[in-house]
Amino acid sequence: MFTLAQARYLIATLRPRIDELILLRADLAELRADLDGGGLSQLGGVPEVKALEARLHGILEELNEHEIQVKGFAPVLLDFVGEREGRQVLWCWLEGDDDIRWYHRADCGFPGRRRI
Question: What is the pLDDT of residues 47-94, one digit of tens each?
């Protein structure tokens, strides 16, 4: 269980890794598009695809080790189990947000998001 303050602290602490994940995701998408099109890529070839995938998976594992639920990859969507007014909720961070500003009940999912 995370308090809102703990979840916000963790997002701030891990922000460089999350930003790296977003950059790696973009590089991987571009590299795959170039290679799938039969062309060459400035980003490399199949070995670079494998290296990018490994780095991406490493960051995702790191997030999981912190008990952060990775709900989305493109865009990045992270949930932190918490409690609000005696009910279990998920503090919700979406790529592009500068802070955790949303939550939703665990049984309502993303459509049930509410402002904190």
Answer: 999 999 999 999 999 999 999 999 999 999 999 999 999 999 999 999
Supply the mean pLDDT for the chain.
Answer: 96
Q: Quickly list DSSP for 15-74.
A: HHHHHHHHHHHHHHHHHHHHHHTT--BTTBSHHHHHHHHHHHHHHHHHHHHTT-EEEEET
Give the mean model confidence (pLDDT) for residues 16-33: 97
Q: Hunting for tokens 């665990």 — which residue is that?
A: 106
**Structure-block tokens of residue 103:** 């939550």
Look up tokens 């790696």; give the residue: 24
Q: How far apart are the first and last CA of the chain?
A: 17
Flag whether the pTM goes above 0.85.
yes
Residue 85: φ, ψ to 5° = 50, 40
Q: Which residues contact 93 (CB under 8 A, 6 or more apart)?
A: 7, 11, 77, 78, 79, 80, 99, 100, 102
